[in-house]
Amino acid sequence: MVTYILRRIAGMIPTLIVVSIISFIIIQLPPGDFFTTLQAETAQTGGGQDTETVKLMQERYGLDQPWTTQYFRWISGFPRGDFGWSLEWHSPVLPLVLERMGYTCLVGGLSLVFMVVVAVPIGIYSATHQYSIGDHVLSFLGFLGLSLPGFLLALLWMFLGIVVLHIPVGGVQAIKFSGQPMSVAKALDYLNHLWPPAVILGLASTAQLQRIMRGNLLDVLGQQYITTARAKGLPERKVINKYGVRVAINPLISVMAMEVPKIISESTIVGIVMSIPTTGPLLLRSLLSQDMYLAGGFLLFMSLLLMFANLLADIALAWADPRIRYT
Amino acid sequence: MIDYEAQSRKLFELYEQHTGTAKDFANAEADDESLMATFAASQWQLMWRKFVRNKVAIIGGVIILLYYLTALFAGFVAPYTLSTRFVKYIYMPPQRVHLFHDGKFQPYVYDVELEVDENLRKIYTPNPDVIIPIRFFARGEPYKLFGLIETDVHLFLTPEGIVSLLGTDRQGRDMFSRVLYGSQVSLTIGLLGVLMSLTFGSVLGIASGYYGGWIDELIQRLIELVRSFPAIPLWMALSAAVPPHWPPLRTYFVVTLILSVIGWTWLARQLRGKVLAMRNEEFILAAKLSGASDARIIFRHLVPATFSHIIVVSTLAMPAMILAETALSFLGLGLRPPITSWGVLLKEVQNLQSIALYPWVFTPALAIAIAILAFNFLGDGLRDAADPYTV
After folding, report:
1. Could you report the per-residue pLDDT of A9-33, keeping only the tens digit for each?
2. Residue B50 belongs to what H/E stretch?
C-alpha cells in the first residue's frame, strides 16, 4: 500500500512540472504587466521604499530576462516555499494562497458532507419506494439540481435572499463578530454563513450521487442473496441496511471523487458571487490587476489540490474495495 | 387410436378462445403490417418514436427551438434595438399587458406616470385613463434582419408610447429587447463552442479508441494534463489574457475557443469509450477483412455508428458552454460591451442593491435558467432515445 501511494505521488511530479510551465505561460500571456505599471508609478512618486522593492524583485525574479529564465527563477524558489511575490499585496504569494485555499477546502468539505448526508438516504428511499410519488418527486428535484450549476444557483439564492426573504446574504460572518476572538457564537455565525455556499456547491453532485445510489441499490436488491435473506425471515430493515446498502454504497467513493474537481472549480465562482473568501475572489482580482505571481500561484495550488483529491480518492477506493490491487 | 394431434389442437383453440389471444382473422393483415413496420423501421425511426413518447424532452426541444427562432429574428421580435434609450423611463418596472379592450381583442398597456418620492426613488404608476394600444407589424426603428436585410417592421410596437414587457434598465433601455439580442450571442457561442470541442474531441477520441497503442497513450496523457487544471480558474486565467482593445468579433471567437479548450476532453473520453467497445465488433472486423482502409472504416462505419451518441453528448454539453460564457462575462473576463450576451447583461446589474430595488433587471438569469433546463430535458430525452432497444 505504501509503495502504491509513493508511486502515485512520484507519478504526479512530471504532471506538476508541465502544469507549472503552462501556468507560467498563461500568466505571461496578457500584454503589459503589473511590474511595468509599478515601475512607472515609483518613478513618478520619486521612489523611496518602493524603489528598493522594485529593484530586488527585478533581480530576484529576473524580470528583465527572457521568459525561460524567469520561469526557472520562479520555480527555483519552490523548494524553499517561495512561490513569488504579490505586487499588489506587497507580500509573498504562499500565505495569501494558503489562507484562501483553507476556505475553499472548508466550503468544499462541508459540501461533501452535505452530499453524503443527503444523497445516500434519498437514494435508499428512492430505491426502496421505486416508482412511488416520492421517488418521482425526488428524482425530478435531483434532475433540477443536476441541471442548475453552482453559478446560477448562487445568483438565484442571492436574488431570493435579497428580494423575497430580505435576509443578509453573502460574506462569511456578521460585522459584529469581526475582530473578536473565536467563540461558540462566532463559530455558529460562521456556519450560518457557510452552509448556503456549501449546499449550492454540493447540490449538483448530490443529485448525481443520489441517482447512482438509487441505481446501485436497485441492482443489489435484485440479487439472489437478498431474496435468501428475506426468505430466512430477516426483518426488512436489516435486509436493506446490512445486505443492500453496504454493498451499494461502495462505488459511491469513486463517484464522489469524480465530483471533487467540479467542486473545487465551481467554488471559485460561487465564492465570487457570494463573496466568500475562497480562492475565487482573490484569483479574479489578481487576474484583473495582472498580479501574475499570485495568479500563477493560485493556478498551481488549485491543480495540486485537484491532483491530491484524485490521489485520496484512489487510495480510498483501493482501501474500501479489496478487489482492487495496488501494484 | 387416439388422435393426440387433433386433441392438442382442440386444446389450444379452446385456450385461445378462453384467453382472447385467438387471432382475429379480419384484422390480421393490419396487425402484421404494423408489426412489420416496427421490424423494418430504421434505427433513426425507432429513436424518433421513442423520443416522441418522452413529453418532457419534447417540451425542452420546443423551448430550445423557440429560443433559437427568436434569437434568429431578434431584431423583428424586439420592439426596440439594443441601444434605444428612454431617458424618461429609467428603471421602469414591467408593464402589464391587457388583452381585451371593449370586448374586442386589442392588446394594450396603460401609460405610466413618474413620481419621485422623498428618497429620490422613482415610482412609476400606471394611469388607467390613458391606454396605449399595441400595434402588430408596425414600423419602428430600422434594423438588419440576419445582419443583411434592412427593414423597420417589428412584431409589435406602441407608436403612441412605450411598451416594456420586462422593464427598463438604469439607462432606460428595454430589457426585453436586450435579453433577445443577448440570446443571439449566448446561444450561438454555445453552439460554436460545442462544435469546436466536437471537432477536436471526435477526431482525437475516435483516433484514440481506434488506433490504440502509443497514439491512445499520447492523447490520454494530453487529456489528463488538461484535466489536472480546475476548469473555471483555467478559463478565467485564459480569458484574462484576451486584450480589451480587440475588435468584438475576434474577442467572441477567442472566448469560444477558450471554452472549447476544456470541453473537448470530455467528448473525447466519451467517444473513445464508445469506439473501444465497437472496435472488436463483427462489422468492423468484416470491413477490415474485406480490405477497407482505416479512413473508410472510420468515416463509413464508426462515425455513423457513434453519431447518435455524438448528438446526445453535444446536446448535454451545450448548457455548460452557455453557462461558462455567462459566468466569464459576468466576471468581466469574457465578452465586453458592445457585445451583448446574457452574461454581459448580468454584469450590468452591478450590485445587489439594484436587484433589491429593481428585481426585473435580473431577468437574464431567468432566461439562462430556462434555457439550461430545456437543454438538459432535451439531452436526457435524446440519451434515452439513442438506445431504442432498451425499454
Report:
1. 888 888 888 888 888 888 777 766 6
2. helix B43-52
